Amino acid sequence: MDSSTTILHSPRTVGPSERPPGHDVEEILRSYGELIQRSKLGWTEHLRLRRLLGTGGQGQVYLSERRGSDGFTLPVALKFFSPERFEGERDYVEAMRRMAQVGCHVSKIQHDNLLDVYNFIERNRVRILEMEWVDGYDLDILLTPAMLERARQQVSWERWEYINNVIVTRGPVRPRLKPGMAVALLHEVLAGLAALHREGIVHGDIKPSNIMVKRTGHPKIIDIGSAVELSNLPPQRTCTPQYAAPEILEREDVSPRSDLASVGYVLVEALSGRPLFAGIKDYAAMLEAKRTLPQRLEKVVPPEVRDSELLMTICRRLTSPDPMLRYGSAEEAITCEDGLAEFERTLVRGDLASEYENEMRVWLEELD
């Protein structure tokens, strides 16, 4: 071929690998600039149901998975609110509107001992609460004979003795937490309630199954389905009678102090290893059992609890049938001179305290 020959090439598309350096980045950069200048964005969110987590009077809760870009997945919990207990759609919609307001309020609190709320969704007129999935066990499941037996089979004899002396041991009906561990857990529950109460919200359904213990050892209050704003009380409220304060059962009088009574019942059950009001179906009998509990307390709790005057005072004040004789607030129940923090200080002074959060974390690891 001589130097005067001209070769003509047919036009063709330049492949991505042959484009000038930075060409693709320039396109993405233009998209980036356009996106950040917009006032709103929208995209489709896909949630895949994995398994049923629980069923209650308000509906069902599923473990789900939120999917994003580039392989991102986030486990979330979805609570589907059933319309079954409502007389009509108007009542359901009004109740869900209140639920959305409470959920929005709770989502802004951002407290370590409260469940994170992500969204409130409507699909085919059914309302769904999207919230944090807590990896761990609720207190009701954690304190069962089967779980204690699982721990015994997993650990050495020396470790088993330590668990029984510091964390949990057998009770008359179900396992009971040792005093230091029980108080440490309920201290954090009260801290979460204090954050709710400061915002004018009452949880309304504190019970063992609504206290999740994360694998980090931290407890979290879950299920805000019964929570109410004191400034906007609904005409009807739900509760679990065994853990509801007497004034709620008598006259539906809900207040921050009614949450304290529920905490008291959970604390006494955790310390004693026996349900306090199981099997009582009659409301009058239930009320009588709750009114007399402070007087019967010495027969309910084990000797190591009876031997602590301060711990007995804490239990009596929390479970007092008269709301005015309980602590003035969840924060006061922690910080006052006969509160939970003072009991924890007595353990430290007596060289009886432990790193309870870490103890719980290690125990949960041993259960797997």
UniProtKB/TrEMBL annotation:
The UniProt annotation puts the region (Disordered) at 1-23
| InterPro entries to which the protein is assigned, alphabetical | Kinase-like_dom_sf, Prot_kinase_dom, Ser/Thr_kinase_AS
Ranges for domain Protein kinase come to 47-340
Record-linked CDD domains: STKc_PknB_like
Q: Which UniProt keywords apply?
A: Kinase, Serine/threonine-protein kinase, Transferase
Which one of the record's GO molecular function terms can you name? protein serine/threonine kinase activity
GO cellular component, alphabetical, reads: cytoplasm
PROSITE patterns per record: PROTEIN_KINASE_DOM, PROTEIN_KINASE_ST
State whether keyword Zinc-finger applies: no
Segments traversing the membrane = none
What is a single Pfam family found in this protein's UniProt entry?
Pkinase
What is the name of this protein? Serine/threonine protein kinase
Q: Which organism is it from?
A: Aeoliella straminimaris
